[in-house]
From TrEMBL:
UniProt keyword terms in alphabetical order: Membrane, Transmembrane, Transmembrane helix
GO biological process, one term: cell adhesion involved in single-species biofilm formation
GO MF annotation, one: diguanylate cyclase activity
EC number, as in UniProt: 2.7.7.65
InterPro entries: Diguanylate_Cyclase, GGDEF_dom, Nucleotide_cyclase, Rev_trsase/Diguanyl_cyclase
Protein name: diguanylate cyclase
Length: 612
């Protein structure tokens, strides 16, 4: 018996460390995702700052103010836009300027004495980010500016850290952990899913990462070291554990022991943390502790349970490592088939924009099932249910579920993610189903987050080719859907005559024109598929209407003008239109052929390929 107990204690110990290593691995993955998300948000300010500074350089302050106000109201992450004078260390708020113009008064200058600036290497060191500070409206913010402006006064964009932090909410480890970011120089929290923590000192930084604590009375008790306002001595070059800019540390937050994975390898002088409560690690080992209590009489059950638990951990690890929806669907089927029911398992995902439920095919393609907003709202407010009458669920009837089933709504930060139907003749353990759903929701949130990052064009924020192909496949059976392919005429000549910066601005101007003519609310997809090639997937009642919409866009482009330096730039596009064909490749080929014919016939034309 002693040997058996010893073995089980050892197994429990190894199991705990296995869970810990998996948490560390997932935490590193979350830190990489967080870094990419934050860099993407900061990079999005590049074009705005360039455009605003250009307007300021042209001494068109009224236009610059209007442009700044539009950016503030249209971009959730922006707190304010400032005209900053680094020599005087003062700034004017564009919001205050706008209010002053309406009130016929003068805006008040803002003192900005305590700003320090850090180069951002991922933006080629041409832009800088500030330290943490409170804005004029008492919001915690950071600022981004151009490093080498063409005049002394320049534009600075303030990022509201509360809104920036929302992107970190779904980056959870074991459903209880979170990702947050602290300033390496001060230890203050910059980004945190809990907005009340922003601007406060990070406990993990104070007690586990920063330099040593200094106090006058060396004989004071240990508790003094953990006072709310201890005195610290920081060395900016040596404030990491064992001089290592990444690793793991254990610390206490409100008496709760936590495991934190950190990474300070970035040019922002920030530290990224992914923290998980150690009690959560223990909670995932509760089954082995229960086995330990019952070892004397339930040895056979212990062995069987240990095997099942090991297999469950293997399947959950595979699920957590899913990188796309096809792999995720396959792992969900394996997991639920092994541990809940050997009958059919059906995953249906939900698209918030179109209120459409869709399934993932055997090759990863998406198949629309139904549009039902009311049913989605019902799922959002319901829990796991065991349903015997199939007619009670409209979606289950559509996908031809033919047995009693469990219905598992999958929820994320943004709302309903999807629903799983698990056919089962009898009820299974409710706690097991809830536990598996928690893992599935976390894994699905991470897969969708990674998918979102890979589905958009970084320069224009439009769909990329991969996303466009998926949407064409989804609507290929719809006779009222058309694909417009558009190619900029002589873009190389514009780049040669005016420079690549002008070419980049041309692409952004064209993006705005497309968005104006094909709003996202009424368009299936607007995509940039290559440097100067754009596509639009849209509804039209007939071919004449499809052609008219496309030619209207072409005409809008040829009449559009924009300023670059001291030149007025105009450009044209060649447009091809095609109805959706039997396959994605055939649809793209048919539309591109029409575009090529447009170019060969003299450019600035719209041609429809009517071949079906």
């Amino acid at each position: 018996m002693v040997v058996l107990v010893t073995i089980l204690i050892y197994v429990a110990y190894q199991h705990y460390h296995k869970v810990e290593s998996e948490v560390i691995s997932q935490s590193h993955a979350n830190l990489r995702t967080a870094t990419k998300l934050i860099q993407t948000q900061l990079e999005s300010s590049r074009s705005s700052i360039t455009s605003l500074n250009k307007a300021l350089l042209l001494k068109n302050e009224q236009e610059a103010n209007q442009q700044a106000i539009e950016l503030i109201y249209s971009t959730e992450n922006y707190n304010d836009i400032l005209r900053y004078n680094p020599k005087k260390q003062t700034a004017l708020s564009e919001s205050d300027i706008d209010i002053a113009q309406h009130n016929h008064s003068q805006p008040k200058r803002i003192r900005m004495d305590n700003l320090t600036w850090t180069d951002m290497s991922f933006m080629h060191n041409n832009y800088q980010v500030s330290n943490l500070y409170q804005s004029r409206n008492n919001r915690w913010v950071i600022a981004v500016r151009e490093k080498y402006p063409k005049r002394l006064e320049q534009y600075v964009i303030e990022y509201d850290l509360w809104y920036m932090s929302q992107t970190l909410i779904d980056l959870q480890t074991m459903s209880t952990g979170n990702v947050f970011v602290a300033d390496r120089a001060t230890g203050k929290i910059l980004l945190h899913p809990n907005p009340d923590r922003i601007g406060k000192s990070a406990s993990v930084y104070r007690y586990a990462v920063a330099g040593k604590v200094i106090q006058d009375d060396r004989s004071a008790p240990v508790s003094y070291y953990f006072a709310k306002q201890p005195k610290f001595s920081f060395d900016p070059q040596d404030n990491m554990v064992n001089d290592d800019p990444s690793g793991e540390v254990t610390y206490f937050f409100k008496s709760d022991p936590k495991l934190a994975v950190y990474n300070a390898r970035n040019s922002l002088n920030w530290i990224y943390f992914s923290a998980t409560s150690r009690s959560a690690l223990f909670s995932h080992s509760y089954s082995l502790l229960l086995i330990f209590v019952l070892t004397a009489t339930l040895l056979l059950i212990v062995v069987a349970y240990n095997y099942l638990n090991r297999e469950l951990q293997i399947e959950l690890t595979k699920l957590a490592r899913s990188t796309d929806l096809y792999e995720f669907r396959k792992q969900v089927n394996v997991l639920l088939s092994r541990f809940c029911s050997r009958h059919r398992v059906q995953l249906c995902l939900y698209n918030h924009d179109s209120h459409t439920f869709y399934s993932i095919g055997h090759s990863g393609e998406e198949h629309a099932i139904s549009m039902d907003k009311e049913y989605a709202l019902d799922l959002l407010s319901s829990d796991i249910q065991y349903i015997r009458n199939i007619e009670q669920d409209p979606l289950a009837s559509q996908i031809q579920v033919d047995k009693a089933f469990y219905r598992l709504p999958l929820l994320g930060h943004s709302g309903l993610l999807g629903v799983i139907f698990v056919e089962s003749r009898t009820r299974t353990y409710a706690s097991l189903v809830k536990l598996l759903r928690t893992y599935i929701e976390t894994a699905l949130s991470n897969v969708l987050l990674h998918r979102q990052l890979s589905l958009r064009d970084s320069a224009t924020n439009q769909d990329n080719l991969f996303t466009l192909r998926n949407k064409i496949s989804r609507y290929k059976d719809h006779k009222d859907v058309y694909l417009l392919t558009m190619d900029v005429d002589d873009l190389k000549g514009v780049n040669y005559q005016y420079g690549y910066t002008c070419g980049d601005q041309l692409i952004l101007e064209l993006t705005d024109i497309i968005s104006a003519h094909f709003p996202s609310a009424f368009t299936l997809s607007t995509a940039r598929v290559s440097g100067d090639e754009f596509c639009v997937l849209y509804h039209a009642d007939n071919q004449q209407m499809a052609y008219s919409l496309a030619d209207s866009l072409r005409d809008a482009v040829q009449t559009h003008r924009f300023k670059f330096d001291n030149s007025t730039i105009r450009f044209t596009v060649s447009v091809g239109v095609s109805q959706l064909q039997l396959s994605v490749d055939q649809t793209l080929t048919t539309s591109l052929q029409a575009t090529e014919r447009s170019k060969k016939k003299g450019k600035n034309l719209t041609i429809m390929n009517v071949t079906i």
